[in-house]
Amino acid sequence: MTVKLIPNVARLLGAALASLAAAAALAATKVPGPLVDTGWLASQLNNPEVVIIDVRDDPANFARQHTDKEKADAKAPLVGHIPGSRLLDWKNVRETREIDGVKLDKMVPTAANFEATMRKLGVRNGQAIVIATNGKDSNSVTMGTRVYWTLKYFGYDNMALLDGGVKKWKAEARPLLHEAAPIAAGDFTAGAVRPQLLAQLGDVEKAVAGGAQLVDGRTADYYVGQNMTSDVKAKGHLPGARMLAHKDIVDEATGTFLPKGELLAMARDAGLDPAGEAITYCNTGHLGSGPWFVISELLGNPKAKLYDGSMHEWTKNSSRPLSRKWEMK
Q1: Rounded distance, CA 284 to CA 66, Å?
Q2: Which burial class, exposed, middle or buried, applies to 230 when counting CB atoms under 10 A from its CB (0-12, 13-18, 19+)?
Q3: What CA dihedral angle connects 187, 297, 328 and 269, to 10 degrees?
Q4: Domains identified in the chain, total number
Q5: What residues form DSSP beta bridges with 50?
Q6: Domain limits at 106?
Q7: What's the pTM value of the predicted model, to 2 decimals?
Q8: Can you tell me whether residue 189 is helix, strand or coil?
Q9: Would you say residue 137 lies in a domain?
Q10: How confident is the model at residue 28 (pLDDT cuts 50, 70, 90)?
Q11: 319 SS3 class
């Protein structure tokens, strides 16, 4: 009897070990880099240790179908989402803060508020987070880079951007869902902040006086002061800043980042040292997260910071210097 049971025991033991190995593999899921492609994400859709956060400023389009009229309109908004995605409304990514007695809008949230946002999305500690945008343009893509920067600022590393976003996913005829699924609360915990990723007002004042490189992520019309947003009190750019525009780092036809070699050449053409200390900025710290992502994550420079307050904070005081001179190489 004992001899006859051994094969059964061996099979049961083998199955148990296989289950443990599979569980360990899921628990150890890591993103392969700061960008993941649609093929990689498609292979992970049934992996509970990979969570997709869909950040967008048109949340109503996350879970709806095109109307009959929209179906015939090539310019209709992108609707639907990648299976398993959780909606992160862009307006909840940043918040109003008071810093040194000054009220500032669209700033990095407190650790407690960011933690609460991630928990509402069902994010659990250790999961691989894939950040998806609708990928329609660089404004959308940099919403994703801002979320990525925020996660990294709060000590999280196991995350990546979906290169091309939902736009590329749809273009490849991959499945989209049009109903929001219920989400169980997560246990995400914000870690110790990484001050080396955040440039504050004092850091920028030193850079203007001749310190770190300043990198303006806006387009030329804002850089030279032809245009100005309502968040900013005066036109122009930080003296000495070079421009690495958000629109130039992304192929807007596909929503994907340009190849690393092209990005490196672009930074050098702008007069930047891609390996040097750098502070990126824009109007409110949104678009500037794009060049930060390029310099820090794609070009591998750990000395890159994002100026969260950006021109919104800088121009609160009219005595701070500005330039409208073209300061490119």
Answers
A1: 32
A2: exposed
A3: -160
A4: 2
A5: 128
A6: 29-171
A7: 0.92
A8: coil
A9: yes
A10: confident
A11: coil
Contact 55, 145 (CB under 8 A): no
List beta partners, residue 175: none
The first and second tokens of residue 34, run together, are: 């700061």
The single residue listed with the structure tokens 């245009």 is: 227
For 246, list phi and psi in degrees, rounded to 5.
-60, -35
Pick from 36, 35, 42: which is nearest to 174 by CA?
42
In a domain, 276, yes or no: yes
pLDDT digits (tens, 9 = 90+) for 123-181: 999 999 999 999 999 999 999 999 999 999 999 999 999 999 999 999 999 999 999 99
* 35 shares its domain with 167: yes
User: What is the spatial distance between Cα 21 and Cα 136, in angstroms, rounded to a whole number?
Assistant: 40
Q: What span, in angstroms and rounded, lies between the C-alpha atoms of 293 and 262?
A: 15
Buried b (16+ CB within 10 A) or exposed e, 110-135: ebeebbbbbbebbbbeebbbbbbbbb
93 & 164 share domain: yes
Beginning with the edge strand found earlier in the chain, give each strand of the sheet holding 213-216 in spatial order: 198-199, 304-307, 278-281, 213-216, 242-243
Indicate whether 21 pLDDT > 80: no
**Average pLDDT of the chain to the nearest whole number:** 93
Q: What is the pLDDT of residues 275-325, one digit of tens each?
A: 999 999 999 999 999 999 999 999 999 999 999 999 999 999 999 999 999
Tell me the three state secondary structure of residue 207: helix
Q: Which of 84, 185, 186 is nearest to 126 (CA)?
A: 186
For residues 75 and 157, state if they share a domain.
Answer: yes
Cα gap 234→281, rounded to integer Å: 15
The Cα 223–Cα 324 span in angstroms is 7
Q: Are 100 and 198 in contact (CB under 8 A)?
A: no
Q: How far apart are the first and last CA of the chain?
A: 85
